[in-house]
Amino acid sequence: MKSSKKSVTSGSPPSSCEPGMAGPSSLSTPHISFSIVIEDDHRTINRYAARLKKAKTSQDRTRLLGEVTWRMVRHDISEEIIMRPALIAHLGATGEQMAEHDRLDHERARIELMALFKAGVDEPDFLPRVNTLMAELHEHMRTESGEQIPALEAMLGPSESQRLGREYIKTFALTPELEMFNPATGLKRRVWMGVQEYARMDSAGFRAVWENLTDEQVSSAMSAYHGSRSGDGRGRGKL
User: Fold this and answer.
1) How many Cβ atoms are within 10 Å of 100's Cβ, its own excluded?
2) Domains and CATH numbers, the chain
3) What is the pLDDT of residues 99-147, one digit of tens each?
Protein backbone atom coordinates (compact mmCIF):
# COMPACT_ATOMS: atom_id res chain seq x y z
CA MET A 1 0.00 0.00 0.00
CA LYS A 2 1.32 3.41 -0.91
CA SER A 3 1.51 5.76 2.07
CA SER A 4 1.74 9.51 2.23
CA LYS A 5 3.24 11.81 4.80
CA LYS A 6 2.37 15.43 5.39
CA SER A 7 4.38 18.11 7.09
CA VAL A 8 2.35 19.88 9.73
CA THR A 9 2.98 22.60 12.24
CA SER A 10 1.19 23.55 15.40
CA GLY A 11 -0.63 26.79 15.88
CA SER A 12 1.10 27.39 19.21
CA PRO A 13 4.71 27.56 20.36
CA PRO A 14 6.34 24.25 21.31
CA SER A 15 5.47 23.09 24.80
CA SER A 16 8.07 22.30 27.41
CA CYS A 17 6.36 18.93 27.81
CA GLU A 18 7.29 15.81 25.88
CA PRO A 19 6.03 15.55 22.28
CA GLY A 20 2.30 15.00 22.16
CA MET A 21 1.85 15.91 25.82
CA ALA A 22 -0.30 18.83 26.84
CA GLY A 23 0.42 21.24 29.65
CA PRO A 24 -0.45 20.63 33.30
CA SER A 25 -3.99 21.97 32.97
CA SER A 26 -5.02 19.01 30.79
CA LEU A 27 -3.76 16.41 33.23
CA SER A 28 -6.29 17.05 36.01
CA THR A 29 -8.46 14.18 34.76
CA PRO A 30 -9.86 11.03 36.38
CA HIS A 31 -7.33 8.27 36.94
CA ILE A 32 -8.16 5.46 34.51
CA SER A 33 -5.92 2.49 33.81
CA PHE A 34 -4.48 1.78 30.39
CA SER A 35 -6.46 -1.45 30.03
CA ILE A 36 -9.76 0.37 30.63
CA VAL A 37 -8.94 2.93 27.93
CA ILE A 38 -8.10 0.17 25.44
CA GLU A 39 -11.30 -1.70 26.26
CA ASP A 40 -13.34 1.46 25.76
CA ASP A 41 -11.70 1.91 22.36
CA HIS A 42 -12.49 -1.69 21.40
CA ARG A 43 -16.13 -1.28 22.42
CA THR A 44 -16.50 1.85 20.32
CA ILE A 45 -15.07 0.18 17.21
CA ASN A 46 -17.28 -2.87 17.74
CA ARG A 47 -20.34 -0.66 18.12
CA TYR A 48 -19.76 0.98 14.74
CA ALA A 49 -18.89 -2.37 13.15
CA ALA A 50 -22.23 -3.78 14.34
CA ARG A 51 -24.03 -0.82 12.80
CA LEU A 52 -22.18 -1.35 9.51
CA LYS A 53 -23.24 -5.00 9.37
CA LYS A 54 -26.89 -3.99 9.91
CA ALA A 55 -26.89 -1.06 7.44
CA LYS A 56 -29.50 -1.42 4.70
CA THR A 57 -28.87 1.52 2.37
CA SER A 58 -25.83 2.39 0.26
CA GLN A 59 -25.62 5.76 1.98
CA ASP A 60 -25.55 4.22 5.45
CA ARG A 61 -23.04 1.56 4.41
CA THR A 62 -20.72 4.17 2.92
CA ARG A 63 -20.94 6.40 5.99
CA LEU A 64 -20.42 3.55 8.44
CA LEU A 65 -17.61 2.00 6.42
CA GLY A 66 -15.89 5.37 6.74
CA GLU A 67 -16.51 5.42 10.50
CA VAL A 68 -15.14 1.92 11.02
CA THR A 69 -12.15 2.60 8.77
CA TRP A 70 -10.89 5.77 10.42
CA ARG A 71 -11.53 4.45 13.92
CA MET A 72 -9.61 1.26 13.16
CA VAL A 73 -6.74 3.23 11.63
CA ARG A 74 -6.64 5.63 14.58
CA HIS A 75 -6.72 2.67 16.98
CA ASP A 76 -3.73 1.20 15.14
CA ILE A 77 -1.84 4.49 15.31
CA SER A 78 -2.66 4.90 19.01
CA GLU A 79 -1.17 1.49 19.66
CA GLU A 80 1.84 2.23 17.47
CA ILE A 81 2.60 5.42 19.38
CA ILE A 82 1.72 4.28 22.91
CA MET A 83 1.13 0.55 23.39
CA ARG A 84 3.71 -1.18 21.22
CA PRO A 85 6.69 0.75 22.61
CA ALA A 86 5.43 -0.08 26.11
CA LEU A 87 5.16 -3.78 25.24
CA ILE A 88 8.75 -3.80 24.03
CA ALA A 89 10.07 -1.74 26.94
CA HIS A 90 8.43 -3.87 29.64
CA LEU A 91 8.27 -7.34 28.06
CA GLY A 92 11.45 -7.46 25.99
CA ALA A 93 11.60 -10.05 23.20
CA THR A 94 8.11 -11.31 24.01
CA GLY A 95 6.83 -7.76 23.77
CA GLU A 96 8.54 -7.32 20.40
CA GLN A 97 6.73 -10.40 19.09
CA MET A 98 3.41 -9.14 20.44
CA ALA A 99 3.94 -5.71 18.91
CA GLU A 100 4.83 -7.10 15.49
CA HIS A 101 1.88 -9.51 15.49
CA ASP A 102 -0.42 -6.64 16.46
CA ARG A 103 1.02 -4.41 13.74
CA LEU A 104 0.56 -7.03 11.02
CA ASP A 105 -3.04 -7.74 12.05
CA HIS A 106 -3.88 -4.07 11.78
CA GLU A 107 -2.14 -3.67 8.43
CA ARG A 108 -4.16 -6.55 6.98
CA ALA A 109 -7.35 -4.95 8.30
CA ARG A 110 -6.44 -1.59 6.80
CA ILE A 111 -5.76 -3.15 3.40
CA GLU A 112 -9.11 -4.96 3.44
CA LEU A 113 -11.01 -1.84 4.50
CA MET A 114 -9.46 0.14 1.65
CA ALA A 115 -10.32 -2.71 -0.73
CA LEU A 116 -13.95 -2.51 0.41
CA PHE A 117 -13.98 1.19 -0.43
CA LYS A 118 -12.60 0.45 -3.88
CA ALA A 119 -15.02 -2.40 -4.60
CA GLY A 120 -18.06 -0.44 -3.48
CA VAL A 121 -20.68 -1.02 -0.82
CA ASP A 122 -23.26 -2.43 -3.26
CA GLU A 123 -21.17 -5.41 -4.35
CA PRO A 124 -22.81 -8.78 -3.53
CA ASP A 125 -19.85 -9.88 -1.43
CA PHE A 126 -19.64 -6.65 0.58
CA LEU A 127 -21.43 -7.94 3.67
CA PRO A 128 -19.70 -11.36 3.71
CA ARG A 129 -16.33 -9.60 3.49
CA VAL A 130 -17.30 -7.23 6.29
CA ASN A 131 -18.43 -10.16 8.45
CA THR A 132 -15.17 -12.01 7.83
CA LEU A 133 -13.08 -8.95 8.62
CA MET A 134 -14.99 -8.17 11.80
CA ALA A 135 -14.69 -11.78 12.97
CA GLU A 136 -10.92 -11.57 12.50
CA LEU A 137 -10.78 -8.25 14.34
CA HIS A 138 -12.89 -9.65 17.17
CA GLU A 139 -10.38 -12.46 17.59
CA HIS A 140 -7.55 -9.94 17.46
CA MET A 141 -9.16 -7.84 20.19
CA ARG A 142 -9.83 -10.95 22.28
CA THR A 143 -6.13 -11.85 22.16
CA GLU A 144 -5.10 -8.29 22.86
CA SER A 145 -7.46 -7.91 25.82
CA GLY A 146 -6.98 -11.42 27.16
CA GLU A 147 -3.23 -11.85 26.77
CA GLN A 148 -1.23 -8.82 25.67
CA ILE A 149 -2.75 -6.11 27.85
CA PRO A 150 -2.83 -8.24 31.04
CA ALA A 151 0.82 -9.17 30.49
CA LEU A 152 1.71 -5.50 30.13
CA GLU A 153 -0.42 -4.38 33.08
CA ALA A 154 1.31 -6.96 35.27
CA MET A 155 4.58 -5.10 34.68
CA LEU A 156 3.15 -1.64 35.32
CA GLY A 157 2.44 0.11 38.57
CA PRO A 158 -0.88 1.99 38.89
CA SER A 159 0.67 5.37 38.12
CA GLU A 160 2.41 4.14 34.97
CA SER A 161 -0.75 2.39 33.78
CA GLN A 162 -2.70 5.62 34.28
CA ARG A 163 0.00 7.62 32.49
CA LEU A 164 -0.16 5.32 29.47
CA GLY A 165 -3.94 5.61 29.55
CA ARG A 166 -3.70 9.41 29.45
CA GLU A 167 -1.22 9.32 26.59
CA TYR A 168 -3.45 6.94 24.64
CA ILE A 169 -6.48 9.19 25.15
CA LYS A 170 -4.54 12.13 23.72
CA THR A 171 -4.27 10.29 20.39
CA PHE A 172 -8.07 10.49 20.11
CA ALA A 173 -7.50 14.00 18.77
CA LEU A 174 -6.36 12.36 15.51
CA THR A 175 -9.70 12.43 13.70
CA PRO A 176 -10.25 12.95 9.95
CA GLU A 177 -11.72 16.40 10.69
CA LEU A 178 -8.58 17.62 12.48
CA GLU A 179 -7.40 21.09 11.47
CA MET A 180 -3.90 22.45 11.93
CA PHE A 181 -2.55 25.98 11.63
CA ASN A 182 -0.69 26.68 8.39
CA PRO A 183 1.96 29.37 9.00
CA ALA A 184 2.29 30.01 5.26
CA THR A 185 -1.31 31.22 4.97
CA GLY A 186 -2.06 32.15 8.56
CA LEU A 187 -5.13 29.93 8.39
CA LYS A 188 -6.22 26.57 9.71
CA ARG A 189 -6.56 23.77 7.20
CA ARG A 190 -7.78 20.20 7.22
CA VAL A 191 -4.92 17.73 7.58
CA TRP A 192 -6.82 15.13 5.55
CA MET A 193 -9.42 15.67 2.84
CA GLY A 194 -11.33 12.50 3.66
CA VAL A 195 -11.29 9.10 5.32
CA GLN A 196 -9.42 7.37 2.51
CA GLU A 197 -6.62 9.95 2.55
CA TYR A 198 -6.54 9.60 6.34
CA ALA A 199 -6.26 5.81 6.06
CA ARG A 200 -3.40 6.04 3.54
CA MET A 201 -1.12 8.06 5.81
CA ASP A 202 1.76 6.07 7.28
CA SER A 203 2.63 5.91 10.96
CA ALA A 204 5.45 8.46 10.60
CA GLY A 205 3.00 10.96 9.14
CA PHE A 206 0.53 10.41 11.96
CA ARG A 207 3.28 10.76 14.52
CA ALA A 208 4.27 14.11 13.01
CA VAL A 209 0.68 15.31 13.33
CA TRP A 210 0.41 13.97 16.89
CA GLU A 211 3.62 15.70 17.97
CA ASN A 212 2.23 19.03 16.72
CA LEU A 213 -1.16 18.86 18.41
CA THR A 214 -1.92 21.93 20.47
CA ASP A 215 -2.73 21.76 24.17
CA GLU A 216 -6.27 22.83 23.28
CA GLN A 217 -6.72 19.94 20.84
CA VAL A 218 -5.38 17.42 23.35
CA SER A 219 -7.53 18.83 26.15
CA SER A 220 -10.60 18.64 23.92
CA ALA A 221 -9.92 14.98 23.11
CA MET A 222 -9.48 14.11 26.77
CA SER A 223 -12.63 15.98 27.77
CA ALA A 224 -14.59 14.18 25.04
CA TYR A 225 -13.40 10.80 26.27
CA HIS A 226 -14.17 11.45 29.92
CA GLY A 227 -17.47 13.03 28.92
CA SER A 228 -18.46 9.88 27.04
CA ARG A 229 -17.61 7.75 30.09
CA SER A 230 -19.65 9.95 32.41
CA GLY A 231 -22.60 9.85 30.03
CA ASP A 232 -22.94 13.58 29.43
CA GLY A 233 -22.63 13.12 25.67
CA ARG A 234 -19.56 15.27 25.11
CA GLY A 235 -17.66 12.34 23.68
CA ARG A 236 -20.21 11.32 21.06
CA GLY A 237 -18.75 11.34 17.61
CA LYS A 238 -15.20 11.47 18.94
CA LEU A 239 -14.66 7.93 20.17
Assistant:
1) 13
2) 31-230 (1.20.120)
3) 999 999 999 999 999 999 999 999 999 999 999 999 999 999 999 999 9
